Amino acid sequence: MALIAPSLLAADFLKLQAECEMVNNSAADWLHLDVMDGMFVPNISFGPMVIEFVRKVVNKPCDVHLMIEQPARYAEQFKNAGADHLTIHIEACPMLHQDITQIKALGMKAGVAVNPHTPVSLLSDILHEVSIVNLMSVNPGFGGQKFIAYTLEKIKQLKQMIRERNLDVLIEIDGGVTIENAKEIIDAGADVLVAGSTVFRATDPIAAVEKLKSL
């Protein structure tokens, strides 16, 4: 059974407390928070202050995904805001090992994210240092995009790497996850499904989470 992490990016920010309480009351395992800086990706979302307020309401682990340049500069701020997991992009971090080490030293689970065009083979030297690999299944920057089909092959390749090394690393799929394609994604080897529109924009978000959990 995959873990379900609704993405706050798709929530109604006029009803942010209610949306967070919905996540609490659902079968969701984590809350996923997408931080964008308008430089690494062509959009700006929110930062530590919003996460700090969300953390006052949400009783599930906060899974923070930094789609920003030089993310290590802000690791301590996100820890103080309440991040339980902090995921940074391989494409944004020329000193990736150092940045991952810093995240773990701050007491958070460290994750590394890869864009759709980035081969999973580039994770070979860092895989044993992280708890989560976020495979972007859309081009990062905007919610509501369609799942990129060849992500399924990347999931299988990454799962094989993890099994061959007997590592305890979760594969997280972020982008375009729907009720219709979730089973295929899980069968390929995914452990965590990030679901934005599929949950927050459903007629019954709690039922949508239940459906994803049942697959």
UniProtKB/TrEMBL annotation:
| The enzyme's E.C. designation | 5.1.3.1
Active-site residues annotated for this sequence: 34, 174
Q: Carries keyword Isomerase?
A: yes
Top enzyme class = isomerase
Identify the pathway: Carbohydrate degradation
The UniProt annotation places substrate binding at: 7, 65, 141-144, 174-176, 196-197
GO MF terms, alphabetically ordered: D-ribulose-phosphate 3-epimerase activity
Any idea which UniProt keywords this protein has? Carbohydrate metabolism, Isomerase, Metal-binding
Identify the cofactor(s): Co(2+); a divalent metal cation; Zn(2+); Fe(2+)
Please indicate which superkingdom the organism of origin belongs to: Bacteria
Give the cofactor binding note: Binds 1 divalent metal cation per subunit.
Xref: InterPro entries: Aldolase_TIM, Ribul_P_3_epim, Ribul_P_3_epim-like, RibuloseP-bd_barrel
**Which PANTHER family does the record associate with it?**
RIBULOSE-5-PHOSPHATE-3-EPIMERASE
What family is it from?
Answer: Belongs to the ribulose-phosphate 3-epimerase family.
Q: Quote the NCBIfam families the UniProt record gives.
A: PRK05581.1-4, rpe
Full protein name = Ribulose-phosphate 3-epimerase
What's the gene?
rpe
